[in-house]
Specification:
With 90 residues, the chain is an alpha+beta fold. It has two helices and five strands, in the order H-E-E-E-E-H-E.
Length: 90
């Protein structure tokens, strides 16, 4: 699917991140979290199941960059969207 086909998802995720909400989801047996850092950057964290500490796998300067970074096995969040489970924004 083309990026423009995900315009609603991009808008929802961007709004959540800009407003310091966290986005959590599962993909390929791992848990992930996307968030805005206090310094204004945006990060993606990877957690193993049932482990409370994670590894920061990406940091970007703008929320738009979240959708272009290939940190999920060489894929972007948009490319894995159909395989994401248990997604929650809070």
């Amino acid at each position: 699917m083309k990026t423009e086909d995900y315009s609603d998802l991009i808008a929802q995720y961007t709004e959540a991140l800009v407003n310091y909400h966290e986005i959590e989801f599962k993909y390929n047996g791992r848990e992930y979290e996307m968030e805005r850092e206090p310094d204004g950057q945006y990060s993606i964290w990877e957690f193993e199941p049932d482990v409370t500490s994670g590894t920061k796998i990406a940091t970007v300067k703008t929320p738009e960059e979240i959708f272009t970074i290939k940190c999920f096995g060489g894929k972007t969040i948009l490319e894995i969207d159909d395989d994401v489970t248990d997604a929650i924004v809070f």
